[in-house]
Amino acid sequence: MNEHILVCVAWPYAKTSTHVGQVAGAYLPADTFARYHRMAGNKVLMVSGSDEHGTPILVESERLGISPREFVARYHKQITEVWEKLGISWDCYTETGTSNHYSITQDFFLTLYDKGYIFKDTMQSAYCPTDRRFLPDRYIEGTCPNCGYKEARGDQCDNCGHTLDPIDLIDPRCKLCGSTTSKLEMRMTDHFFLDLPKLQEPLQQWLTENKEHWRPNTLSFAMNWLKEGLRARAITRDLDWGVPIPLEGYEDKRIYVWFDAVIGYFSASVEWAQRQGKPEAWKEWWVPGQTSPEVKPYYFIGKDNIPFHTIIWPAMLLGYGNRNLPFDVPANEFMTMSGEKASSSRGNVIWTRDVLEQFGPDTLRYYLTATAPEGRDSDFTFEEMIRRNNDELVAAYGNVVHRTLTFLQSKFGGVVPTPLEYRDADKAILAELENGFAVVSSQIEKCHFKSALDAAMNVARAANRYLDEQAPWKQIKVDREAAGTTIYVMLQVISGLHALFSPFLPFSSQQLHELLGFEGEVSKEGWQVRPIAAGVTLPKPAPLFPKLELPVAVE
Question: Does domain 4-110+258-359 have CATH number 3.40.50.1000?
Answer without folding.
Answer: no
